[in-house]
From TrEMBL:
It comes from Maritalea myrionectae. It comes from the Bacteria. This is Putative RuBisCO transcriptional regulator. GO terms for molecular function: DNA binding; DNA-binding transcription factor activity. PANTHER family: HTH-TYPE TRANSCRIPTIONAL REGULATOR YBHD (PTHR30419), NITROGEN ASSIMILATION TRANSCRIPTIONAL ACTIVATOR-RELATED (PTHR30419:SF8). Belongs to the LysR transcriptional regulatory family. Keywords: DNA-binding, Transcription, Transcription regulation.
Length: 310
């Protein structure tokens, strides 16, 4: 099947490139009617496009069900091929625009919710000043969704703490980091810029969301040492909450560049949790194995890894 698709040449691919996008929309919506609403075309017109594609391929891409549609066995193979072609087409367009000097495109960075994203703000600001036509977005991604988000092209690459790898995704940059606490300046906690886990007994913590790798590690360490800190609030942006609340709280986070200006809330200091208590870990830039990044994504990836390496 895939050999046939590659052998059928550019004619079929270019003739049906828009239909490839239609197929992707149908898969994401789960029905032709739902995809038609998203695409702002009529269901009958969308169905005719799919039927023309199926006629050229000699297969049924979708099984028509009583409620919606699902990819057929052959359709699953075709869908992977179609996603590859759409990615290649987007990459070609980005490269053409780069040569023309327009530098337009879209970059979506996936981030695990236990990594503090404040360090990205100056990086994004600087990048947007140089490439104002590039659309940048950050998307929180869970461990369970990481592979699908990368393989389906919903994110270009991910910044992730302790990712679970598979044959479809790989790490292309890694940095060892400490687990950090954001502590009010007046708090007498720890010494030599380091805190032990037992210092947190009974204190109110603002933490990353549950089911993140950081929280699994932290809760496991607390359980082993029979320590019960108070989990006051779980949220993806501890800095913003700490900055706005009048209550003295302690934030738990992965800070890729803790010394960077603006990362820590005003009136707070950084302590690291002792490695003997919680260990350390790695933040990683994760990509899909077969993907070639677009010009814009490649440029931002290059600057991100340089920033992390400082």
């Amino acid at each position: 099947m895939l050999r046939f698709l590659h052998q059928c040449g550019e004619t079929l691919i270019m003739r049906h490139l828009q239909t490839f996008k239609y197929v992707r929309a149908i898969v994401e919506a789960g029905s032709i009617r739902g995809a038609a609403e998203t695409l702002a075309i009529s269901p009958s017109a969308l169905n005719r496009n799919i039927q023309a594609l199926e006629l050229d391929l000699g297969i049924s891409v979708f099984d028509r069900l009583s409620r919606g549609v699902a990819l057929s066995v052959e359709g699953e193979l075709f869908y992977r091929f179609a996603l590859e072609q759409l990615t290649s087409y987007d990459r070609m367009n980005s490269q053409i625009e780069a040569v023309k000097g327009l530098h337009i495109g879209k970059v979506t960075i996936g981030v695990s919710a236990d990594i503090h994203t404040g360090f990205l703000v100056p990086l994004i600001t600087e990048f947007k000043q140089e490439f104002p036509q590039v659309e940048l977005s950050i998307q929180l991604v869970s461990q369970s969704d990481l592979e699908d988000q990368l393989v389906n092209g919903n994110i270009d690459f991910a910044l992730f703490y302790q990712p679970q790898l598979s044959r479809n995704i790989k790490i292309n940059f890694s940095k060892q980091v400490d687990i950090c606490l954001m502590v009010p300046n007046g708090a007498k906690l720890g010494q030599d810029r380091t805190a032990r886990l037992h210092h947190l007994e009974g204190l109110n913590l603002v933490t990353p969301p549950a089911h993140t790798e950081l929280m699994a590690k932290f809760e496991g360490a607390c359980e082993r040492q029979d320590i019960e800190p108070t989990l006051y609030l779980s949220c993806p942006d501890q800095t913003q909450y700490l900055q706005q609340t009048p209550i003295a709280l302690i934030g738990l986070a992965i800070l890729p560049n803790p010394n960077q200006i603006g990362v820590v809330p005003v009136g707070y200091k950084i302590l690291k949790l002792h490695e003997n208590d919680v260990g350390s870990g790695y933040i990683n830039v994760v990509i899909e194995r077969k993907r070639h990044l677009s010009f814009a994504a490649s440029k931002f990836h290059e600057r991100l890894t340089y920033n992390l390496d400082q």
